[in-house]
Design goal:
Length: about 240
């Protein structure tokens, strides 16, 4: 069986057993290969915007004798994926604005999934706000550290795909700034890796505060206030 990196393995662990899995921005194709080999999904669709990564994925799929189970598809986001063609879709390793663009353009496809797994590389608070505003509900979260970098990830489903009794068991209220930044479930479970991430964030914000010019200027004063508030928030979370 193909070996995955720590980040990729954590993403694989979020995928529920399904008939068809779709990897958006598949790059080397290792994740769909692993999921088919492990029997998590029967079939997979490996999609990418560029032919270079798609050709690499196709080569790896052929080397693993999985061409009958994994299809490669040139696609901008989920543009080439039909509604309900896959049960589980993963969008990982992209910036937050790109992730939001993919979700916006493919909203009907994503709303009809049994699960949507996201791992944005930046602006994760904006991604969380977007999906919550669109009616997606949080099923689970995880965070891993690899080579000094932290990778938060989440699994969601649109509320339209759940019966009312299940929706009532999931949080649908407005989320706080801390929850949008660091993950409602990660905070609730006091995830040990999140704790290390918060410590790193604290040091970063303290360094920013220390390096701010000591001048009475509106722009600097406002920036100092924002940084001080974030330091206070992280301090409270670490308690």
């Amino acid at each position: 069986m193909i070996a995955l990196s720590k980040r990729m393995q954590a993403l694989a662990n979020l995928v529920s057993p399904c008939k068809t899995f779709c990897d958006v921005g598949t790059d080397h194709g290792f994740l769909p290969i692993y999921l088919v080999q492990a029997g998590v999904c029967e079939n997979a669709i490996a999609m990418d915007l560029r032919m270079g990564p798609l050709d690499r994925a196709k080569k790896h799929i052929q080397e693993c004798n999985l061409s009958d189970s994994i299809e490669t598809r040139l696609s901008d986001g989920v543009q080439k994926l039909g509604i309900r063609e896959a049960e589980s879709v993963l969008i990982a390793g992209m910036g937050g604005s790109v992730t939001i663009h993919i979700l916006t353009e493919g909203l009907e496809v994503c709303k009809n999934l049994k699960e949507l797994i996201l791992q944005p590389q930046s602006e994760i608070d904006e991604v969380r706000k977007f999906v919550f505003d669109q009616g997606f509900l949080l099923l689970s979260e995880d965070i891993v550290e690899e080579d000094g970098k932290f990778y938060p990830m989440m699994k969601l489903v649109h509320r339209s795909q759940l019966p009312d009794e299940k929706v009532s068991g999931l949080k649908v209220d407005l989320y706080s700034e801390a929850e949008l930044l660091y993950g409602p479930l990660l905070l609730k479970m006091q995830h040990p890796v999140l704790k290390e991430f918060l410590k790193k964030e604290m040091k970063r914000e303290e360094k920013i505060l220390l390096n701010l010019p000591d001048i009475d200027e509106d722009r600097i004063t406002e920036r100092r206030k924002i940084v001080e508030n974030k330091i206070h928030m992280i301090h409270e979370l670490l308690k």
